[in-house]
Amino acid sequence: MNSWVNRAFTYHWQLMQAAYGSHINSCVIFAGAAPQLRRTLASRLRHCVYFPEDCIAQCGRADRCLYFIHRGEVEVLTVHPNLTESVYDVLGPEDSFGIAQVGVILSIIYA
After folding, report:
1. Is the pTM of this model over 0.90?
2. Pairwise CA distance, residues 47 & 28, whole Å
């Protein structure tokens, strides 16, 4: 049974690395990280699906997440004082966001 568990973990790790490893490898935060750490991080990514009109993150709310866009687009909106919105930027595949809040969290932990 133990060898089956090890094989299942190895297959999972290889699948996640193949599918999402490029996100970790291209992220500025992990540029100097050891390859083994980057592989481990890729295997721990959680796949989430968002639909049009879903709010993924909001300014002022830290959720300790770093988001990588694998497919599709994400609009970054600016909310004006009169509560209207305008598109500030459009992020696409291989883009990421949430780096600032992760960087703040990491600097607090390791300070």
Report:
1. no
2. 20
